[in-house]
Amino acid sequence: MSIPTITNKNLEELMKKIKPVIRVSRVTNSKGSRLEEDPDGDLYYIKPVEPRKVAFNWDPKPTRLAKSVNPNPYKKIITIHDYGAPSLFKPSIAEVLAQIPEKDIKKCVAFETNLLGFTDSSSYHTAQTRLYEKKR
User: Fold this and answer.
1) What is the pTM assigned to this prediction?
2) What does the alpha-carbon distance between residue 93 and residue 32 come to, in Å, rounded to a whole number?
3) What is the pLDDT of residues 23-61, one digit of tens each?
4) How far apart are CA 136 and CA 134, in angstroms?
5) Is 32 left (phi over 0), alpha (psi -120 to 50) or beta?
6) Which residue from 93, 90, 77, 97 is spatially nearest to 124, judged by alpha carbons?
């Protein structure tokens, strides 16, 4: 088992159309309001990061509400991800995009990735990646 490769050209093309998202909610207190990660929150696009070397889930910065994205995933897939240390889940955008099934490339416009554990050999982290489509 290994992570599929993706060319720079293919990665660039897919990144124009398929974006990482996170779920956040607005929290308001006496000091003001801010967005906090919340598994029941709204989908937000995040600030772009380097797609091969940077973990998009490390301190993601929400940029705008993903208004055009259906908030219910149409599919969930299992993806695998390299790690530097077993305790550090660091999925890259390239790893995720390389593992989206070909039949989903036209439909998928966003994804969200959450750690599950390890492969049987403990060579990789496993994650559940939720695929999202445009609202109809």
Assistant:
1) 0.92
2) 32
3) 999 888 888 888 888 999 999 999 999 999 999 999 999
4) 6
5) left
6) 90
